[in-house]
Write a structure and sequence with these properties.
Blueprint lengths: L8 E3 L5 E3 H10 L22 E7 L11 E8 L2 E2 L10 E2 L2 E8 L2 H15 L4 E4 L9 E4 L22 H11 L4
Length: about 180
């Protein structure tokens, strides 16, 4: 392996070092350390434009959060045409409407703000193959897990799930959302 001369080397805050030109090229694709994945700057996802994220508070409690109301998140991504950043540019994609739930606790409200930030950075959804229908050119979740059921526990994407709020914060952190 060839050593990089000090004047052509760049060290990141995570302590990993790279050739300056190589790092510039890598960051042009995605601003993350190629070794550890630490995010530098703001990640922008491929979520289709034109979607909405609406919030409602309901008096119903989630299992495990008996003393709290529930935050209901309504996502809507309309049908559209894929852009260059998507798998099949110029082809139509099918939009989606999804509902998710959080406890209206201090930690739940914190996660809501992180999810709002991720939505605004186009990181919540992407276009790809639906794991439920097997169809291509569908709007799908983009590796940030949501509770889409109020009940049934983790296997039903619901509550109770005492580790969920911590897990989703870790998933968001991996995408630079803190």
């Amino acid at each position: 392996m060839e050593l990089i001369p000090p004047e052509k080397k760049k060290a990141l805050q995570c302590k990993h070092s790279f050739c300056k030109d190589c790092l510039k090229r890598a960051f042009g694709y995605k601003p993350v350390c190629p070794v550890c994945g630490e995010v530098y700057g703001i990640l922008k996802g491929t979520q289709p434009d034109g979607g909405t994220m609406d919030i409602q508070i309901t008096s119903v409690s989630l299992p495990g959060y008996d003393n709290h109301q529930t935050i209901v998140i309504y996502y809507h991504i309309p049908n559209g045409i894929q852009k260059e950043e998507h798998p099949n540019p110029g082809q139509p994609f099918q939009g989606v409407s999804r509902t998710a739930y959080l406890p209206n606790s201090s930690e739940g409200r914190k996660v809501l703000e992180l999810l709002r930030k991720a939505f605004n950075q186009r990181l919540i959804f992407t276009i790809g193959r639906s794991s439920t229908s097997g169809r291509n050119n569908m709007v799908t979740w983009n590796d940030i897990h949501h509770k889409t059921s109020m009940h049934g526990g983790p296997t039903s994407y619901g509550y109770p799930d005492p580790d969920y709020l911590n897990r989703v914060q870790e998933e968001l952190k991996a995408k630079g959302i803190k």
